[in-house]
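Summary for the steering committee. The consortium agreed at its last meeting that each partner would contribute one worked example illustrating the joint modelling workflow. Our contribution is presented below. We chose a case with several input lines so that the handling of multiple components could be demonstrated. No manual editing was applied between input and output; the record is shown as generated.
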Amino acid sequence: MNKITEKKLTQPGNTTIKDEFWGRYIRLVQDVVIPYQYEALHDRVPEAELSHAIANFEIAAGRRAGEFKGWVFQDSDVAKWLEAVGYSLKLKPDPGLERQADEVIDLIGEAQQEDGYLNTYFTVKEPGKRWTNLQDCHELYCAGHFIEAAVAYYEATGKDKLLNIMRRVVDHIDSVFGPEEGRLKGYDGHQEIELALVKLHLLTGNEKYLKLSSFFIDQRGQEPNFLHQEWESRGRITHWSGKTDHIDLAYFQAHLPVREQSVAVGHSVRAVYMYTAMADLALLNGDRALRDACVRLWNNMTEKQMYISGGIGSTHHGEAFTFDYDLPNDTIYAETCASIGLIFFAQRMLRLAPEARYADIMERALYNNVLGSMAQDGKHYFYVNPLEVWPQACSCNPGKHHVKPERQGWFGCACCPPNVARLLTSLNQYIYTVHGDTLYTNLYIGNESNFTLGGTEVAITLESRFPWEGKVSMKVNPEQSGDFGIALRIPSWSDGEEIKVNGEVVSFSESLEQGYVVIRREWKADDVIELNFPMEAHRVYAHPNLRADAGKTAIQRGPLVYCLEGADNGDLLSSISISKTGGFMETFDGGLLGGAVVVKTAGCRVDERSWNDGLYSRTKAAEMPVEVTAIPYYLWGNRGSGEMKVWIPEAERQSLPR
Amino acid sequence: MNKITEKKLTQPGNTTIKDEFWGRYIRLVQDVVIPYQYEALHDRVPEAELSHAIANFEIAAGRRAGEFKGWVFQDSDVAKWLEAVGYSLKLKPDPGLERQADEVIDLIGEAQQEDGYLNTYFTVKEPGKRWTNLQDCHELYCAGHFIEAAVAYYEATGKDKLLNIMRRVVDHIDSVFGPEEGRLKGYDGHQEIELALVKLHLLTGNEKYLKLSSFFIDQRGQEPNFLHQEWESRGRITHWSGKTDHIDLAYFQAHLPVREQSVAVGHSVRAVYMYTAMADLALLNGDRALRDACVRLWNNMTEKQMYISGGIGSTHHGEAFTFDYDLPNDTIYAETCASIGLIFFAQRMLRLAPEARYADIMERALYNNVLGSMAQDGKHYFYVNPLEVWPQACSCNPGKHHVKPERQGWFGCACCPPNVARLLTSLNQYIYTVHGDTLYTNLYIGNESNFTLGGTEVAITLESRFPWEGKVSMKVNPEQSGDFGIALRIPSWSDGEEIKVNGEVVSFSESLEQGYVVIRREWKADDVIELNFPMEAHRVYAHPNLRADAGKTAIQRGPLVYCLEGADNGDLLSSISISKTGGFMETFDGGLLGGAVVVKTAGCRVDERSWNDGLYSRTKAAEMPVEVTAIPYYLWGNRGSGEMKVWIPEAERQSLPR
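What follows is the complete predicted structure of the assembly.
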C-alpha cells in the first residue's frame, strides 16, 4: 500500500481531546454506546427493536439459514459501528472490543461474494436484482459506510482485512459503473460512497478511488437523468411504495448537475453527505466550479434554511428542506444525522478556506442539535430535534407524530445513534485545520496536539472550560523557535473578547482575517496564548423573513442555545413572555443533569385563572410577573414529558397583575 | 301520503329572505352555481375536472355503455344538486330548471334496480359487492343525500317521483339492516342517512323511517363493533389503500356507543352529520341520554375545538379533529362542509332548547367559514379555510399542501360547492325557531315570514343591514291581537345593545333568557321592534390554552371576523403587530369586492431594511409605525395570491423608528 503524500492529507497532525465536557460524552460512547450497539446489532437487547443486522450477515455468509430482515440499508448499521470502534480504539486500546470487531470483520468477509459484491439484502433476498434500483436500495450507500469503517479501523489498528475486503468491493463497483461503454452511468439514491471513496483515496493514494468518486458526483443530475430512466425501466416501481406516478429528483439532489445547484433541496442527510464529497473533490481536484457550488449551497443552507440549533430539514415529509426562511419550530424535522452531515461539510469547507463562519456553524450544530440528540444514559436518542414541543400534540395531532417529547430507545432504523457515536469518537479531527504554516483553531475543546508548522514540530496544549466559561489557555511549544501562524477563531456569539500572548494584549484590528485572529510571529518554547470570550447570556433574534420566530427572541450563552421547559416554568409555555429589557441571572447548577449554567430572567405569564370560560372573549386574560428559567437546549426532555420551546415572545416589563 | 302532525314538524312557519347581503349570494347560487353545477355534472365544463356523475347514472340506467368513473360516492353530487334545485324552486319558480331536474329524476328512476337498490358504483362496477364495505363505500351516505333531495323537491314542486324512488330505496335498506335475525347490524362509514331519514319521517309521518334512523344511531359503536368485524371479514382490505393493519374507529365516530361520547373526534363532517341526527332523534324520541350526549359534544366542539371562524377540524390527516385547544392556524383543515354540518347541528340544538349560544355559533360559521369558502364568481371554492396563509409554504412545504392561497375550480370531488348551494338556498330555515308560543329570532337576516303564534297568524317583517350596520327593525303583525312571545337573540359579540318596542326601551334584566330578550305581551297589528346592536370593530382574545393564538388578538365587527392581507399591508405579515391601545377606524368601501367595511388601526412593522444579513443576530431589527388595514375574513384570497392572517400580535404603541 502506497500512502498518499503528506501534502494531500487534509487531516494533519495529531490531536487528543482532554476536555472535561466532551470527555464525558466520548467516554459515554466508549463505555455505553458502542457496547450497547454491539448487543443491539446482535439482537440481544430486550428493550430495543430487533436490528437483524448481524443475523443478515450470518445468513449471507452461509453460517445459518433464514430470511433477510430489516431495512434494505440495514448493513450500514454494522458499518457505522465498526467505524466508531475504529475511532475509539485509536483513542484507547481495548483488546476485547478489537476482538469483537475482528470477528464481525471475519463475518463480513464470509458474506462477500466471489466477484467482490457485498450487500446482504441482494445476496439473501433478491439475488438477481443487484444494481437495478439505485434510487431506493442503498447498495453504494452501504458500501460507502463500510469503506469509512475500513479506513478508520486500519488507521486505528493497522489491520487491513476490512480494507482489503472493501478494496475488492470497490473494484467490483468500478467494473459496474463508469463512463465506459456498457457500464451504468448511475449513482446512488443516497449519497455517501462519494465521500467514502475520497477517504479511501487519501489513505491509499490510489487515484482510481478519486476518479470513481468524481464520476458519481459529476454524473449526478446529468441528462438523460439516470434515476428517471432507471425508474422508467423498472416500470415506475419503487422499493417502498410500489408503483408511483412521479419521481422527485430534487429529493435525491439529482434534479440538476451538482455544479448548477445553488439551493439546498430534498432529503437533508443526502444533501449534506453530497456537499461534503463535493467540497472534498473541489479541494483535491482544484475544481473551482465545484467549490463555487459548495459555497452557494453552504450559503443558502446556513443563511436561509438552518435552525438556530444547527438543525436542517424543515419537514418530515421526505425528511427534507422546504424553502428559504421556512423554519417552523414545531413541525420541524432537523434530523440528528443531518446536523452531523452539516458538521462534515463544515469541516471540508474549512479545509477549502479558513473562514470562521464555517466553524461557527460546526460549533452551533455540535453543541445544540447533535449534543441534544443523545440522552445522558447514551441509550436514548432524538432523531427529530424540535425547537418547540407540546407533548399532547405529538401524540394527538398527526402532523406532529414524528416529533417526540422524550428520547426514544434504539430503533430498527438506528441511523442516528451510531452516527453520533462515530462523530464523537472522531471529534479530535474537527478542532483544527492547517493552511500553509498556520494552525487554525476552530473549536475550543481542550486537547493536546502535535503539528508540523513552519518546518518545526509544535506541541499544542489547549485548556478550556467551554461551554461554561469563556477562558481558554493555549500553550504553543515548538521544538525549535520558528515562524508560523496560530489563528484563533472569534466565535460569532462573542462580544468583547480579549486575547493575550505571554500576557500582552493582541490588537484585533491588525490581525483579524475571515473571523480568525491570526498571530504570525516567531514562537518559542512555552509561549502561552490566553483567550477570554465573555460567556454571557444574551438575546438572539431571527431574520425578519423567518416568520416562525417573529416577535420572539432566543437566549444563547456561548455556543449554547437555551430553552424553556415545563419542568422549570410550568407547562403552557405559550403564556410566557420575557421582558424586553430584563437582565439575565446566570448560575451553575451542579445538580442539573451533569451540571449546567441555568439562566433566569424576568417575564410575565398569563394568569389562566383570570379567564372566564369559553374559547374566545372580548376580555383579555390578566398577566402576572414571573421569573423565567432557561436551561441549555441540549438538556431538554430529560426530566419527563413536558413542554419545551426555544423562541420566546418579548414583552414590555410587566407591572403588577390586575 | 299522510302528512305528519304540525306538532312534530320542527320547521314551522314560512320565511322568505329579503336581504340585500344574503340576497346577492342566494341569487349567485341560483343564477350561477346551480346551472354551472348542472353542466359540471354532465361533464360539459371545460375548465372543471370531469364529474362522471350523470354518465355513471346513464350507464347504470342502460342508456349507454361504459365504465363507472369518479369516487365511490360520486352519486351524491347529483343528489346535492337536486336538493339545492328543490330549495331554489321553492324560492323562485323556474320551469327550465324544473324540467332539467325532472329529466335527471327520470334517469335516477331508470338506474334503480328491481329490488329498489340505487347506487351506480355497485350497479356498474361491483355488482356482487353491495353492502360488503359499509366502512368506505358510502352506499347509505348517497341514499341519504337522495332522500334529502327527494324531500326538498317534493316540498318545492309537489312532485313525488323522486320521493317514491327513495321510499323504495329505503324499503330495500330496511330489509337489509335491522335488529332482526339475518339482517346487518351495521351503519354507514359516513353518517348522513340518519338525518335524512328523519326528514323523510317528518314529511311522511311514517314511523318506519324514524325507527331505521334510530337503529343506525343506536347501533353505532356498539360491541361487537360492526365496522371492525366487517373489516376483518373483508380480510382487512379497505377500498382506498388495500390491506391495512389498523382500523381507526374514532375516525368514523364508531369507537363508542353514541350516548357515551363526550369529545368530538375523527372526521369532522361525519361527526357533525351524526350529531345533527342525534339531536333530531333526541327531540323526536324525547331521548334524554341522546340529548345529553349532544350537549356534551356541542360543548366540547365549540368550547375547545373550534376556530374563531366557526371552522372545525384541526388537521388534514383524516380531515379531522385532533384534541382540545389544538387549533393551529396554518396547518388547519376547517373544511367548508364541516362548518355547514355545524350549522345543521346548531339548528337542531336550537329546536331542542332555545339557547342563543347555539345561534351564536351558527352565525359565526355562516358569516365567516362558510361565506368565505365561495368566490365572488360562484365558481371557485375553498375546501380548506385557513386562518393564516403564506402562499409559498402552500406549494413548498408538504405539511401545508392542502392549504390553498386562492379558491380552486370545481373538483372531481366537489363536496363543498353543492353543500354551500343547498345551505344558501335553504337559509330561510335557519332564521327562526318556535318554542311553544314564542318565536325565537336567531339570525338577523332580512325576511318576511308567517307563523302561527298564540293561536293567531302573525306576519313578521324583519329589515336589517347586517353585517354592516347593527340596526334591525322587526314588524310584528298579528291577524288578531294576541299573547305570544317574540325572542330576540343578543349576539355574543354585542356590547351595549338597545331594544325598543313601539319606541319604548325594553329592560333587559327582566327579560333575558338564555341569551334571548324574550318579549311576552299582547301583540297588536303593526307593532314594531327596533334593535340596535352596536356594530363596532373590537378585539377578541383566545383562551390561554389555545397556544396558537397566545399573545395575539383578532379583530371582529358584528358577526364578521377580520383578517390582514398582503394586498393591503404588504406581505411578510408576521412583521406586523397592532397597538394594544389603538382605536379602530371603520369605513365602508363600496369598491371592495361588492362593498365591505374596512377597519384600520395603528400598528408597527419590522423594517426589513434595518436587518443586516444573516439568519440570526444579537441585534434586533428596527420597527416603524404603520397603519394596519383589516378586511372581513370572508373576502380574503380574492385579490391574487398573497399572505393572510387573522390572529395578530399586540404590542405597545410604537414610538418613532430608531
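Chain A touches chain B through 57 residues (CB under 8 Å). Residues 1-10 of chain A have pLDDT under 50 and may be disordered.
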